[in-house]
């Protein structure tokens, strides 16, 4: 009996190919942040780049191209004139919203912010000219 229990406990479940492909697509470096930017209304290349600090033009172009090739984003160019190109979610892309929201919720629970960007961190003290200066007073409860 113990042998059967051990065999069941060590049974290997192969990763579903669809799951693996999906995680590779949306979990690639910068991809989640790019998708988040588009979900929050950033549709132009420069706006997406500005919304994702540290993202290079080359990497953004590659990721946008990949997301377009996989039918997650749609590239829209102006009908006439030099209108800027915009990137919009397709139906397939919009269906990722609950996935991204779940990752956001998980990250808020389990991923600590670096100390300098923590929202509850008090601001650095300003130079004080005495005990009655605003910087010498206790910070407000709102942070």
Note the main attributes of this structure.
mainly alpha; 2 strands; extended
Q: What does it look like?
A:
The protein is mainly alpha-helical and 143 residues long. The chain is 45% helix and 6% strand. The protein is built from 7 helices and 2 strands. Strands 1-2 form a two-stranded antiparallel ribbon. Helix 3 (31-39) crosses helix 4. The longest helix is centred in the last third of the chain and has 14 residues, at 97-110. The radius of gyration is 23 Å and the shape is extended. Mean pLDDT is 83; it is low at 125-143.
Helix count equals 7
Q: Roughly what fraction of the amino acids lie in strands?
A: 5-15%
Largest sheet properties? 2 strands, antiparallel
Fraction of helical residues: 40-55%
Number of strand elements: 2
- The coarse overall form would be extended
Mean pLDDT: 83
Chain oligomer state? single chain
Reading the helices and strands in chain order gives HHHHHEEHH
Topology (SSEs and partners):
Blueprint: H1 2-9, H2 17-26, H3 31-39, H4 45-51, H5 57-69, E1 73-76, E2 86-89, H6 91-94, H7 97-110
Antiparallel strand pairs: 1-2
Brief description of this entry?
Helices cover 45% and strands 6% of the residues. By secondary structure, the chain is mainly alpha-helical.
């Amino acid at each position: 009996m113990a042998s059967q229990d051990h065999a069941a406990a060590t049974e290997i479940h192969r990763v579903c190919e669809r799951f693996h492909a999906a995680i590779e697509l949306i979990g690639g470096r910068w991809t989640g942040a790019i998708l988040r930017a588009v979900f929050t209304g950033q549709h132009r290349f420069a706006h997406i780049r500005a919304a994702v600090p540290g993202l290079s033009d080359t990497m953004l172009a590659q990721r946008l191209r990949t997301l377009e090739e996989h039918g997650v984003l749609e590239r829209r160019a102006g009908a006439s004139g030099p209108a800027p190109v915009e990137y919009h979610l397709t139906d397939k892309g919009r269906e990722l919203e609950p996935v991204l929201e779940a990752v956001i919720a998980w990250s808020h629970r389990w991923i600590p912010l670096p100390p300098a960007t923590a929202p509850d961190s008090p601001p650095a003290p300003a130079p004080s000219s005495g005990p009655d200066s605003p910087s010498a007073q206790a910070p407000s409860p709102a942070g």
